[in-house]
Design a protein that fits this description.
The protein is mainly alpha-helical. The protein is 77% helix and 1% strand. It has 22 helices and 2 strands.
């Protein structure tokens, strides 16, 4: 069997899902351009900035993509490529797209505030505090993981570091010029074309002027950059960088699809489904935790209700940004699976162990792109650079989101200290960066990633819980949110229980304690949500007045 039909059929399924299931979901959320969005209501030129749909999509997609839809699906192929592809499509359409759009719309109707505030309004202050603490901890974890990944990537490939630095200067210039251009669409298109051409040129230029620093220095440089990106206006750095970077990933997807169609490689991987992996554990729940961003990811809810909702110009823009952005990411996950199933299972296991998922992805796609006449080494470097660029995008977005979460936690509290922490973005960002440095010093990727996976999917379940309660209190039938919510809680609680038990047996008591704490947290929030629904509307979870 060849790879091309899998890629084509997956693309068709995702497009049809946007058209037909999307129409159903959009109606459920009652999207209406007549409502004033937070970006207009609270426009401040820093965080609340009404922006063009294509610009917001670029920011949102660049922020949620990162390395997640590449690393997770490739590792999950351990259980078999067929279950991986099925879950990416089913999860992306019925779970992830609903989760992302729901988080975004709920935030749009709550002054652009985070899921934590939505929980406060619908479940209570105690629920908000628990969720904000959890989401803040998860964001610090993400910052630490991605800072470690990027620093090591920059050491191994200094050319990628040079290109990334050039991208930042290009983004600032692009942001300043487009701000002066205003609403002139023709000029914006011309500036975009020039910016994208320069960005692709910098990919090549970076290989000519490699920038080499040691690991520790890179960590401080990266977190210093993240601090600056968090406190400056989104229109100056974060938004234009994400917008331009999104064209890197669009280009990668287009070149990858063309490479697949022309090369039409055979699938060498066997069709067997492996229900247990010696290293990972059982297919349920591990597959659904490992394939995070490609199907559903709790981190997306923080982006959707954090930075993205503050930039949406009109409510209907959320359709393509929230629902469409998730489906594009699911397609990237399909491409990631395709990049490795052209290997036999023995080859896959050997290369995964020796080179890791990102290198496998770069080598696989680079080889397919070479059929287009692109030198294979240049193609491989381009893919690796794209992954690194999006990891850097995730880093700076996470820092801003952690700052938002930290400030929201102290909103409404009495006392000068609480007021300072809730309003001063420089102090709150400094605390975020310091905590990230402390966490990095306690362990790198290998130590932190398994914990991140479980915490991330619990975050998705909690976000779906918040959206479901919000809808049900509006007397909207919420089964399309409740079903994914119950499934994700089953996945998460099973995963955390197994994770806690395994680490307890291995005498890793701290990890076992953290997993147990997350387990208890989710149960408490479920109880609070049920109690809130019962007290306020006499509607038990799973039913509706209508």
């Amino acid at each position: 069997m060849s790879l091309a039909p899998i890629v084509i059929i997956s693309a068709i399924i995702l497009i049809l899902a946007y058209i037909f299931y999307g129409k159903y979901v959009f109606k459920k959320f009652d999207l209406n351009n007549n409502r004033l969005t937070p970006s207009h209501k609270h426009e401040d030129g820093v965080d609340y900035v009404p922006s063009k749909p294509i610009v917001v999509l670029g920011h949102h997609f660049a922020s949620i993509a990162g390395a997640g839809p590449i690393v997770g699906p490739i590792i999950a192929v351990t259980f078999g490529w067929i279950p991986a592809v099925i879950w990416i499509l089913v999860g992306g359409i019925f779970f992830g797209a609903v989760h992302d759009l729901g988080s975004m719309v709920a935030s749009l109707r709550t002054d652009g505030k985070s899921i934590g505030t939505i929980i406060k309004n619908n479940i209570g202050q105690q629920g908000k505090q628990l969720f904000m603490l959890f989401s803040f901890s998860t964001l610090i974890l993400v910052i630490a993981v991605f800072a470690d990944i990027i620093a090591k990537t920059f050491i191994n490939t200094p050319g990628v570091a040079s290109a990334s630095i050039l991208f930042i200067f290009l983004a600032v210039g692009f942001g300043l010029v487009t701000k002066r251009a205003g609403n002139n669409k023709s000029l914006f298109i011309i500036l975009t074309i020039v910016g994208v051409i320069l960005m692709y040129y910098f990919v090549y230029l970076g290989t000519l002027i490699p920038f080499d620093l040691d690991y520790q220095i890179w960590l401080y440089v990266l977190l210093g950059y993240a601090f600056i990106a968090s406190v400056t206006p989104v229109s100056l750095l974060l938004q234009p960088r994400d917008y331009l970077n999104s064209f890197l990933l669009y280009g990668l997807i287009i070149l990858a699809v063309l490479g697949v169609l022309i090369a039409n490689p055979e699938i060498k991987m066997d069709n067997q489904v492996h229900f247990k992996s010696e290293n990972l554990g059982f297919l349920f729940p591990v597959l659904f935790v490992t394939i995070a961003c490609g199907a559903i990811s709790g981190f997306h809810s923080l982006v959707a209700s954090g930075t993205t909702s503050k930039q949406i110009d009109k409510e209907n823009d959320a359709k393509v940004v929230g629902f469409g952005g998730m489906l594009i990411e699911s397609f990237l996950a399909i491409v990631s699976v395709g990049a490795v199933i052209v290997l036999s299972r023995d080859e896959y296991q050997t290369v995964l162990t020796s080179k890791g998922p990102v290198s496998m992805f770069a080598d696989g796609l680079g080889n397919m792109m070479s059929t287009l006449g692109i030198p294979e080494q240049l193609a491989v470097s381009f893919v690796a650079l794209t992954v690194s660029a999006f990891a850097l995008t995730t880093l700076d977005t996470c820092t801003r989101l952690a700052r938002f979460t930290f400030q929201e936690y102290f909103e409404g509290m009495e006392g000068p200290a609480a007021k300072t922490l809730s309003s001063n973005r420089y102090i709150s960002t400094s605390i975020v960066v310091i905590l990230s440095i402390l966490l990095i010093s306690s362990g790198g990727f290998a130590t932190l990633w398994p914990l991140f996976g479980s915490a991330n999917q619990l975050l998705a379940a909690l976000a779906l819980l918040a959206v479901a309660v919000w809808l049900m209190k509006k007397n909207v039938k919420a089964n399309f949110v409740l079903i994914p919510m119950f499934f994700m809680f089953a996945v998460t609680l099973s995963s955390l229980g197994l994770f806690a038990w395994k680490n307890f047996q291995d005498n890793a008591y701290l990890l076992a304690l953290i997993a147990s704490g997350l387990f208890i947290l989710s149960i408490v929030l479920i109880i609070l949500a049920r109690k809130s629904l019962t007290l306020n509307s006499s509607v038990p979870i799973g039913t509706n007045k209508n």
